[in-house]
Amino acid sequence: MILGILTGTFRLWGASPEGVSYAIILSNLMVPLIERVTLPTAFGKEGQKK
């Protein structure tokens, strides 16, 4: 979804024709943040103490 939104934004308001390339690069840079927010805790790991 982020890639599509960025591509559309760069194509509509960007001066350069490489909007898809820029959207892919920015989306790849945001992957660690997306994974940190969206990865669920493994089942059965929450209640264990070390």
Distance between the termini: 39 Å
Order of helices and strands: HHH
Give Rg in angstroms.
17 Å
Largest sheet: none
Strand content: under 5%
Helix content: 55-70%
Number of strands: 0
Count of DSSP H/I helices: 3
Broad shape: rod-shaped
Report low-confidence residues grouped into runs of 5 or more.
none
Structural class: mainly alpha
Q: Residue-averaged pLDDT, rounded?
A: 84
Explained architecture:
- This protein has a domain at 1-6 and 18-36.
- The radius of gyration is 17 Å and the shape is rod-shaped.
- The model has no long low-confidence stretch (mean pLDDT 84).
- The protein starts with a helix and ends in a 12-residue tail after the last helix.
- The chain is 62% helix and 0% strand.
- It has helices spanning 2-13, 19-29, 31-38.
- With 50 residues, the chain is mostly helical.
- Helix 1 packs antiparallel against helix 2 (19-29).
